[in-house]
Amino acid sequence: MALLSINGKIFCGGSLITNSFVLTAAHCVIQNYTQLIVKLGEYDASTTLDGPTSNFGINRAFKHPNYENKTHTYDIALLKLDGTTYYNSAKVMMYGKVLITLSVLPFLGLTQLLDNKCIPPKYAPRIIGGQNAGRAPWMAYLMRNRAFVGGGSLIAYRFVLTAAHCSKLNETLFVRLGEYDLSTTRDGKTQDYRAVDIYRHPYYNAVTQVNDIALLKLDRPVIYTATIRPICILLSPGVRFVINKIKLFTVTGWGQASRYPRMPTKLQQMTVRRYSYSHCYNQPGKLCASNPAQFACKGDAGSPLGAQVRYNGTTIFAQFGVASTFTDNCKAYGIYTDLLYHTHWIAETMQHNWY
Question: Pick from 40, 30, 23: which is nearest to 7 by CA?
Fold first, then answer.
């Protein structure tokens, strides 16, 4: 935490994000910002017995170029300190908490991950090919009255992403994580959670399936393991050009494995090719994909559509879509909600309901 003061009076707050930069609100940056003092390490301003603090001046201030003073749109700014901070053990812990907060801010210029723990140690790509999927530790199995209703993906420590039509407001929905093969308990430990809150997109249309996306808040935090881990979600709008270059995606779920109404017990996966919007009713905010040899259908709704991408020199599997609807009775194209249209809503909803 950073405490901004002027003439000895508390003026604003902020957060230390590197050893020389503090993040704050743009309206906190006065015209003569060099008068501001940034204090780090503060806890109780009424005493000096709670530990040492460090004071810094401000070398430069950077308001967001589109900041509006009247509406407070883009109310964010960076302060460059006049010195370099050195972390002690207490401040290192606080620095880690600040990073968690920043990871859900979609408006920073650099490409970010919603939860950087989606990159496990010694990451090896898990989605390779075939019909039965390899382990996809982010997969969520959604249940209503003990019956399967759809898929989803773990995206942060107690949030699951799914399709809005897979959920009903104020209903009792359960989420199982760590599942792979429903026919056995020998495939690893699973964990069941209750969805205590369901956040469907405020502009979801049940008729057209526009904005078919929802967040489920679980009844307790998820402890990550080798078989339970979040999927990577890229937040920066600047990654659109990367997504537009991806021609092949992978979709995983427990949906029908054939054109006959037979539900599989093992997690399924298939590779789908991107097609133009004209094949999928020209719906904006959607991804259109298909595989002539296989198909996604009943039971796949809410499941993640993703692909391997390079992130900071590492290959990660990132989610780019949520299975929504299908054309021509599941015989043609799958329509997926495009996540990049909704990352701001995802991040904002999580921020407001984090605890």
Answer: 30
Q: Are 182 and 132 in contact (CB under 8 A)?
A: no
Average pLDDT of the residues in 80-107: 47
Q: How far apart are CA 353 and CA 348, in angstroms?
A: 9
d(CA 210, CA 261): 27
Judge contact between 141 and 254, C-beta under 8 A: yes
- Reading the block at residue 6, the tokens are 């002027």
Locate 261 and state its tokens. Answer: 């109404």
Is 242 a residue whose pLDDT tops 60? yes
Most confident of 73-77, 81-85, 289-293: 73-77
Domains observed in the chain: 2-102 (2.40.10.10), 139-230+344-352 (2.40.10.10), 232-339 (2.40.10.10)
Burial 171-204 (b: 16+ CB within 10 A, else e): eebbbbbbbbebeeeebbeebebebeebbbbeeb
Strand partners, 197: 217
CA distance 111 to 105: 11
Q: pTM of the predicted model, to two decimals?
A: 0.66
Q: How far apart are CA 176 and CA 286, in angstroms?
A: 27
Q: Specify whether the CB–CB gap between 160 and 144 falls below 8 A.
A: no
Q: For 57-71, 81-95, 302-316, which range has the lowest pLDDT when averaged over its residues?
A: 81-95
**For residues 331 and 5, what is the distance between their CA atoms, to the nearest angstrom?**
64
Residue 146's Cβ-side half-sphere holds a number of Cα atoms within 13 Å equal to 0
